[in-house]
């Protein structure tokens, strides 16, 4: 096999391999049809307390058991570059995906959500919610 044919073969094999791997990978949330997003930011009463932060994270994760919650992502402030447009004043974030508005409404009054508020609201000083509908 000459050099030109070998390069073409290796290039084609590489492209086919990447394509095969990409199609075998599980779909991400962005590829699923979850048109309602509920994004909540919590400011802790004791922002320096890792114990309070971890306790709130544990509580937020219980919300994943509500049947209408399709996916949940729980996060903390990333150590990214400091810029004027980045708000890193919050402590814990939850990002919840719903199939429809009815699912989000069910979540709001679900006993697990109400129990979460009752058991963990003493940890936060401020909460901001962004509800987003797919455009």
CATH topology: Alpha-Beta Plaits
Largest sheet at a glance? Answer: 4 strands, antiparallel
CATH class: Alpha Beta
Proportion of strand residues? 15-25%
Tell me the CATH architecture: 2-Layer Sandwich
Q: What is the CA–CA distance across the termini?
A: 53 Å
How many structural domains in the coordinates?
1
Q: Structural class, please?
A: alpha+beta
User: Can you count the helices?
Assistant: 4
State the helical fraction.
25-40%
Number of strands: 4
Mean model confidence by pLDDT: 85
Low-pLDDT stretches are 9-27
What is the string of SSEs from the N terminus onward? Answer: HEHEEHHE
Describe it.
With 135 residues, the protein is of the alpha+beta class. The protein has a single domain (29-133), classed as Alpha-Beta Plaits, CATH 3.30.70. It has four helices and four strands, in the order αβαββααβ. The protein has a four-stranded antiparallel β-sheet. The model is unreliable at 9-27 (pLDDT under 50). This is Stress-response A/B barrel domain-containing protein. Residues 36-132 form the Stress-response A/B barrel domain.
Key structural traits:
Dimeric_a/b-barrel, 24% strand, 135 residues, 39% helix, Alpha-Beta Plaits, four-stranded antiparallel β-sheet, 4 strands, Dabb, 4 helices, globular, alpha+beta
At a glance:
Residues 1-24 form the signal peptide. This protein is of the alpha+beta class and 135 residues long.
Annotate the secondary structure layout.
Blueprint: H1 3-24, E1 36-44, H2 50-61, E2 71-76, E3 92-98, H3 101-109, H4 111-120, E4 124-133
Antiparallel strand pairs: 1-3, 1-4, 2-3
Signal peptide: 1-24
Domain Stress-response A/B barrel: 36-132
Keywords: Signal
């Amino acid at each position: 096999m000459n050099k030109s044919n070998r390069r073409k073969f290796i290039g084609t094999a590489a492209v086919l391999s990447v394509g095969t791997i990409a199609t075998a990978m599980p779909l991400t949330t962005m590829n699923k049809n979850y048109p309602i997003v509920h994004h909540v930011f919590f400011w802790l009463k004791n922002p320096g307390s890792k114990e309070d932060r971890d306790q709130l994270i544990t509580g937020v994760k219980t919300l994943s058991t509500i049947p209408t919650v399709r996916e949940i992502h729980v996060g903390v402030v990333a150590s990214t570059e400091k810029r004027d447009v980045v708000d890193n004043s919050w402590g814990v974030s939850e990002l919840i995906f719903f199939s429809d508005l009815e699912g989000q409404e069910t979540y709001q009054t679900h006993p697990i959500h109400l129990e979460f508020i009752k058991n963990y609201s003493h940890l936060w000083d401020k909460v901001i919610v962004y509800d987003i509908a797919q455009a």
